[in-house]
Amino acid sequence: MLEIRKMLVGTVELGSLFVGRQAQQVPQNPIAKTGDIPIYSGGQITIRNTVPGKAITWVAAGDILIADRCLLSDVTWKELDSAGLIAGREVCIDGHKYLCRVPKVGYDWDRQNEWDKALAIMGADNSLWHWNSMYFWGAEGLTTVTRIARGCHTAYTRDYADEDSRYFNVGFRPCLIPLENDFASYLVGGEAQ
Q: 16 with 51: CB under 8 angstroms?
């Protein structure tokens, strides 16, 4: 278990999304249908070392880093679960260890969760979070086959989708939990920006 760590607030660029052996382009227009979000068509999904020009922007909100946008669309919740990205999988990015998974988004409005906590710290502006027109999968489920998705209409929108279904407007927005106590010292010279 990690000791109490310094809280970061801001953004940082690190790591790249890979599907199979191919580093994916980070979408510059991350909206459904008319945007440029990579469409999942099979292969191992992971975050690896930073590839120049393909670095992911993360929003640091306390002791968690959440991607500032969906990085992949048309991926099912079950595919993410099979890849270890629902409960979490350890990844090494640029020599540092993280737990990589989807954010915890809450079963209902009354429960505290990582997504709403990040919004409370950083605000809900679309220019920061790029939620317009795209839902993202959360860790929780409503039933054994129905899972929670957030975003699309507002940062706070909560919807439900079948875990086996592919949707053009539901995607993968990963989060990273640093597994090293001194994580602030290696993120952007010690501080998020």
A: yes
